[in-house]
Structure formats: C-alpha cells, structure tokens
Amino acid sequence: MAVLLAGAIGVVMPGPSAMADDCARIAFIGVKGAGEDPTGSLERQIHQNMGLNVQRTSLVLKTLVGDAISVQYDDGVDYPAVSVFELFVQFVTTQTSASVADGEAALLSRFYALANTCPGQQFVLVGYSQGAMVVKKTLNRPDFPTDFRNRLKAVVLIADPIANTKNNEPKGLARLFNLETSELPAGIPSKTYCNSGDPVCGKPSLKCVAKIGEAEVAVADPRRWNEALALWQDAWKICDFGDHKNYDEKVAEAGEWLAGILKSTDLAVTGMEIEQPKPICVGTTPSIRVEIKNKGKIDSGTYDIRWTTNGHTINHFLPSIKAGETGTAVLSFHNVWQGTFDVNFMADPNQKIVETREDNNSKSKRLVAKNC
Fold this sequence. Notes:
Blueprint: E1 2-6, E2 9-12, E3 26-31, H1 42-46, H2 52-65, E4 71-73, H3 84-94, H4 98-117, E5 122-128, H5 130-139, H6 146-151, E6 152-158, E7 165-166, E8 169-170, E9 190-193, H7 206-219, H8 225-238, H9 242-245, H10 248-262, E10 267-274, E11 280-281, E12 287-294, E13 303-309, E14 312-318, E15 326-333, E16 339-347, E17 362-370
Parallel strand pairs: 1-15, 3-4, 3-5, 5-6, 6-9, 11-17
Antiparallel strand pairs: 1-2, 7-8, 10-12, 12-15, 13-14, 13-16, 16-17
Helix pairs in contact: 2-10, 3-8, 4-5, 7-8
C-alpha cells in the first residue's frame, strides 16, 4: 500500500481486503461423538449438533474471547455418529466404519464450504470420541488440501479412541476396533484430553480389561461374532463410562487453551526507513517504508493503520499477515516542499486486535526536505 501526500493533502490508494466484510476471522468447527444429537432430537437443537462436550468447549471459548475476536459458531458437522455398539458392529463386520467415513466426507465438505465463502478465514477444530477419530482421519487424508491445513490454528481432541497407545497398539475399548495408531499432521497446534478412568482413551478397570480380552478373542473368529457381540454388551455394562461422558474440567481447560491461542497475535512494527538517499531535495517524491511483522501464532486478519505527519492523520487498513510473516506499508511525499516532516506510523491504532503486546505497534521517523 502506498499513500501519496501533496503538501497537507492526502490521497489514499485503496488496498485489498483479506476476506469478505461479513466473514468472521475464525470458524469454529465441532464434530460430535458416538450416539450424540440424533436427527430430530431435542439435544440436537440444544447442542447445535456438536454434542455436549464440544458445544461446552465452544461456550467457554465464546465467553473468554467475547467480541475481541470474531468467531463463527455454526452447527456441528452432520454425520451419523452411530452409537458405540453400532460402531463396534461396523468394525467387526467390515473392518471399517461407514459412520466414520461419512464423518470424514462431511468434515471435508465443511472445510470446502467455509473456504469458498470466506477465503481468508482460519479454523478451530474440536472433536469428541468418535468425532475425534473423524478429525484425525480427515486431517491425515492424502487429499486434504495444504491450504486448509495451513489455516488450521488449533485442534482439540477429547476422548480420542486412537490417542492412548502402548507399543503402538491402542488400549481400552479401542482394541476391539482394530484401530491403527496415528498422529495429527506436524505443525498444527493441538491438545488431547482424556480422563484417566475413561475406558475408551484411558485406563479401564481390571474387570473391564478382562471382558475386553474375552471379546477380543471371540471377535478374531468370524464363527464367534454373535458371542463377541454378547461379550461386548457385557463389557459395556462392566466398564465405567461415566468418565467417558463427564469432561467438564477438561472442557474448561480446552476452552481456555483455545482462547490463549486466538489471543496470541502480536503485530510489531519492526522497521521504518526513508527510501531515498540524503539529501532529500524539494520537488522529489521520497517514500517511507514500514515493516510490520506478525509475531503471533495466528494470522492477524485485516487490520487498521494510521499515518500521522505534522499533526495530519490518514487512516487506512491493510490485508491480513500470516503468522510469522511480514507486511509492508509505504508513505510517499509527492513533489515534496521544503520543511521538516515528523512521521509516525501505528498498526492497529484503536486496539481492535487482541495482542500479546501493545507497546510495539508504532515507530516514528523525521524527513527533512531541502533546496538542492
């Protein structure tokens, strides 16, 4: 962006916008767990089709960031999210899950829809239980676009069945699903939460483990599948699923962690130089170039700037700067007259962006024009 100054008159050259005006800076995407929010249920309306724990995470985040950061909270990803028992049947009979596969397709479709509507938007992704499995599988798909991955600012997995591994083998009830171990792609900020007593991702009781072992032996023999299903039902009764459902404390931690990520932008004015060797002569067009670095963990979003020269102010805006990258702004003096010009540049002058620091947004420079 360049601003041309002729005497005390400013002419502002319009700059590009990072995204449509009605687009939120962040889109929150929630993926519910097994058996949650079935079609037509009251729970589906109450939880925005996110399920209880994911929706509670969104509410904690909404409370903590308030209006400081624009976040879009759409309904959760719509997929079957069949019950744990139905999920077990799918894995036993086909070694895969139609419910999880449908979830992958639905989540990928949600990413495309958001990206097409708001090209500059960034994403926060939260999945619980079966939803965490959907999240992990989707992000590891070979056809998952790099652009979407780069725009993922944070991922939270709650009660992830694939998370708890020992010697590369799942523990708990996930052993019955023959789940392959996997990690999230490198470079995506993420947190995984699991209650220690959760039989899905944590450490089940000895009685639970024993019954899982019996079912595991039976499920290996197709002739004993009916017996395996009966043993699974027994395991469901014996294993304590209270810790799989009650994630109030972990949900609060997850919301706080997400808020910390979203509040970690830091626009720092790192350089300010006159782009013309001295002496600066009357009648020339000298320029002052400013560098603004985003030292935070998420993209800045479109942000305001302010140039002040000898008391005259010009307000404008600049497009988003990606996390870790640098943007520029240029102020040009057209046919400059003789005199001393004290120039100040400030990024985000009205502190609309929540930043980790507010004391590094400004720099000043003096430009002196002489008769040469």
